[in-house]
Design a protein that fits this description.
Length: about 425
């Protein structure tokens, strides 16, 4: 297993190119299973999660070809309908093959994904969405078994205790494209990744209306054709480099980044005193003055993304004053706190809010990554800290950040990978 070593206290500057969005790419790849024809997906990041999805495809006897950032999927004639435990257990997002398999094969068996370190992560909304289309669903031996003999359009409200669900919206929308009749998804998620998926589905011939809103209307068609699509840039990766610039008092230009996907993040960070300005095909992030503490609440889009909550917390640990960071999507997503405190941060958890008292400096330490975004937060803390930080268990980072150490090194960071002894 590898670890990431960071020599901190170095200012980052230069240009970084943002990769394609993992969270847009995964459901888009799954959507290609709705057709018999070839689809070509571009701007695909080279990540462990994408490789896992392609393994699921191979397991289904779907031909895939990868050439750098371009993936060609040839689903012609595939008959299988199962996503096994061995693969689903390594990536929860594998659940997004459920809707396409059900709609295309009228039957699907997908391993129940289970919880993870950031919380229980139920799938009731996925099942509710598919049941509203007439699917008969049972859970047996750890598998969701979905029968779609009588699928037809339906109306469904997809709001849960924590608001809308990104992948439940994706699953229901994908399945609805191929069933007879009209489906209305109320309280649909409208994250840019859902919009990108809808855009791809429409290129395949799906009839979707109002896909940028919380009420998506889908009129089923009898078949979808193959399509070509370039996925949107990764707003979470862009947000992470934005914070990297802030925490190292740097000056980073993000190429291939869309500020319109990061409105809440830009709002909060400019409020703190960061300079963020648009440039052609991206934006520039400059530390120009001492930052102020912030109140941040992670909410569904267009609110501040939960996937950047841990990273902004790292920034607030070294920002003078008291910041309050509240998590409204995953109230247990705070495992990074204990690791940040090991580096000298002063953070206390009060219910679903973290009270962060800014300290003068963090000090490098060995720390343990617990999930993808918490790992990114530890890397950011390491970039700011005095001395050396060893981030263990970086397989989490490999799931979601393309060429992280290469990109940070190019910006002037001292970051490298070592084998664990
Ligand atoms: C996606 C993202 C993930 C991000 C999350 C929230 C992908 C691959 N992953 O995950 O990085 O953190 O959105 O922005 O796109 N919930 C239910 N029942 C369900 C489904 C979800 O109660 O059936 C709850 C979840 O526990 C959570 C909230 O709804 O509290 C939002 O989760 P959801 O949007 O579904 O997350 P994912 O789509 O799995």
């Amino acid at each position: 297993m590898d670890k990431l070593v960071i020599e901190g206290s170095r200012r980052l500057e230069g240009t970084v190119t943002i990769s394609g969005a993992k969270n847009a790419c995964l459901p888009i790849l799954a959507a290609a299973l709705l057709s018999d024809e070839k689809s070509v997906i571009r701007n695909v990041p080279s990540l462990k999660d994408i490789a896992t999805m392609l393994k699921i495809f191979k397991n289904l006897d779907v031909k895939v070809h990868q050439d750098g950032g371009t993936i060609t999927i040839e689903p012609k004639g595939y008959k299988k309908h199962m996503a096994p435990y061995e693969l689903v257990s390594t990536m929860r997002a594998s659940i997004c093959v459920l809707g396409p398999l059900l709609a295309k094969q009228r039957y699907a068996e997908v391993s129940f994904p289970g919880g993870c370190v950031i919380g229980a992560r139920p799938i009731d909304l996925h099942l509710k969405g598919l049941k509203s289309l007439g699917a008969k669903i049972k859970v047996e031996k750890g598998y969701i078994i979905a029968d779609g003999k009588n699928l037809r359009g339906g109306n469904v409200y997809l709001g849960g205790h924590f608001g809308s669900s990104v992948l439940a919206t994706a699953n229901t929308m994908m399945a609805a494209t191929l069933v007879k009749g009209v489906t209305v998804i109320e309280n649909a998620a409208c994250e840019p990744e859902v919009v990108d998926l809808a855009t791809f589905l429409m290129k395949m011939g799906a009839k979707i209306k109002d896909h940028t809103t919380h009420r998506i209307i889908i009129e089923g068609v009898t078949r979808l054709h193959g399509a070509e699509h370039a996925v949107i840039p990764d707003r979470i990766e862009a947000g992470t480099y934005t914070i990297a610039s802030a925490i190292t008092k740097g000056d980073i230009t993000l190429k291939n980044a869309k500020p319109e996907h990061l409105v809440a993040v830009i709002d909060r960070l400019t409020e703190a005193g960061l300079s963020i300005t648009k440039v052609p095909n991206g934006f520039r992030v400059r530390y120009v003055k001492k930052l102020k503490p912030l109140d941040v609440t992670a909410l569904p889009y267009p609110g501040f993304p939960t996937d950047l909550q841990a990273q902004v917390m790292s920034l607030m640990t070294v920002t003078d004053g008291i910041s309050i960071i509240t998590e409204k999507i995953y109230p247990e997503r705070f495992i990074h706190i204990s690791e940040l405190n090991r580096m000298g941060a002063d953070i206390q958890l009060e219910g679903a809010s973290a009270i962060v008292k800014g300290v003068k400096a963090l000090s490098g330490a060995p720390v343990m990554a617990s999930d993808l975004r918490a790992s990114a937060a530890l890397v950011l803390a390491g970039l700011a800290a005095k001395g050396r930080t060893d981030v263990h268990r970086i397989y989490h980072l490999d799931r979601g950040y393309e060429k992280l150490e290469e990109k940070l090194t190019k910006l002037g960071g001292k970051v490298w990978r070592e084998k664990e002894k």
